[in-house]
Hints:
With 167 residues, the protein is α/β, with parallel strands linked by helices. The chain has helices at residues 7-15, 17-25, 35-52, 66-77, 121-136; strands at residues 5-6, 59-60, 83-90, 93-103, 107-113, 141-147. A hairpin with a 2-residue loop joins strand 3 (83-90) and strand 4 (93-103). Helix 1 (7-15) packs across helix 2 and helix 1 (7-15) packs across helix 5 (121-136). It starts with a strand and ends in a 20-residue tail after the last strand.
Amino acid sequence: MAKLLSKSRYLCGLQCKRYLWLLFNEPEKVPGADAATQHIFDQGKLVGELAQSLFPDGITASTNDFMENIRLTRQYLQERRPIFEAGIRTSNLFARADVLKPSGNTAWDIIEVKSSTAVKDVNTEDAAFQKYCYQQAGLEINRCYLMHINNQYVRQGKLIPPNCSPP
């Protein structure tokens, strides 16, 4: 199987070409995530789950099986509903969008969810890579959105995250 350039590898390569080389050629030398980095990943996962609650008719293609993710995405594209973790492979590129949302009759919007409080340049590169992959796979992409946390928002009352019952 050919080596894939995934969105995360692409973003790593933008920040450090040597690190990208290691990922492809000597992955055993790349250390695993430390506790602080793992905490950031875990927080990002929670924010992603909260974002999914904004699309109650959405369906998830999330799975640890790479090929199953791609198969489910292709199947769910026919349903024209928001798809969470929609994976697309084209040539030697792979991207997985946080939310792929129908737009009009034939197009799709990409919504990339970030657990940060501001948009960074790398987030724009992230969305651009996804758009390129999806378009290369034949999907019409209308718009790309970057969803992030609004740290100026003050909620009145209790926050009840999805899948939680009030106390």
